Amino acid sequence: MLNKDYLYGGTIVALVALLVLSVLTHGFGLLKATDGTTNVTSNKTTATTSNWSGTKPVVQLFTMAYCPYGNVAEEAIEPAVELLKGTITFEPHYVIYNNYGGAQYCIDNGTYCSMHGAQEMTEDIRELCVWKYENSNYWDFVLAMNSKCTYSNADTCWESVASGLGMDTSTVKACQADEGSSLAAADYALNQQYGVQGSPTLIIDGKEVQPTSRSAEGFKQAICDSFGSNKPSECNTSLSGSTGTASGGCG
């Protein structure tokens, strides 16, 4: 008869061997490796590291800070931009008119104007400054401004929003004072170049594009279509979340 201690020791050795084999083979092959993509179930997403190395499309979204249709577009496109940020060049821009509606709609003696008033125009410039100097806070700032402030109080409301996000408000103020006109001029020139008339307008590689829906998935598909047959793996990721129902525009 075999010694009980011998049997017990042999059992332990066998169990340890099985455990090691399971780890090395990922559960005996029962756990399949994933392709690195992620199903997104909210408007916030963390982009995976991209191995794609093709030409990056230039994606430009033109909005007005307080156009409700533009706000829907901003909230919807943000997850798509975050997902694809390693494979595209994204730029936010603003719809700017010249000599529109009178002094209450304009800054710089009627040179740069916005549909919902002068405070919307200054908020457009402020958001351009945030993009330039507080880039990592851009989306949080813009989406917070959409929900917490309005076109009639943006000039007094914005600072508490920015401070709450830990932003350097003095840098934003200096940018507005020193570079506001030049930033507005550059965006106005782009409006003229692309024939932008209203908010929102999506431009990809110099051409206006209409997404199938103003949802994260709709914007992602519109951007991914610009890659042609050479799509990055991120395009295989399905984005879900709020779907914009507003199909109109301001302008």
Structural summary, described in words:
It contains seven helices and eight strands. With 251 residues, it is an alpha+beta fold. It has two domains: 1-33; 58-244, Glutaredoxin, CATH 3.40.30.10. A hairpin with a 2-residue loop joins strand 5 and strand 6 (207-209). Mean pLDDT is 84; it is low at 1-48.
List keywords for this structure.
251 residues, alpha+beta, Glutaredoxin, 2 domains, four-stranded mixed β-sheet, two-stranded antiparallel sheet, 7 helices, 11% strand
CATH superfamily of the largest domain: Glutaredoxin
Order of adjacent strands in the largest pleated sheet: 2-1-5-6
Radius of gyration over alpha carbons?
25 Å
Contiguous runs where pLDDT drops below 50 for at least 5 residues = 1-48
- The CATH class assignment of the largest domain is Alpha Beta
The secondary-structure element order is: HEHEEEHHHHEEEHE
Strand content: 5-15%
Arithmetic mean of pLDDT: 84
Quick one: biggest sheet?
Answer: 4 strands, mixed
Percent of residues in helical segments? Answer: 40-55%
Q: Number of domains in the coordinates? A: 2
Q: Alpha-carbon distance between the termini?
A: 93 Å
If classified by CATH, what would the architecture of the largest domain be? 3-Layer(aba) Sandwich
CATH fold group of the largest domain: Glutaredoxin
Could you say which overall geometry the principal axes of the C-alpha atoms support? globular
Described by its quaternary structure, the protein is single chain
Structural class: alpha+beta
Counting DSSP E segments of at least 2 residues, the number of strands comes to: 8
- Contiguous helical run count: 7
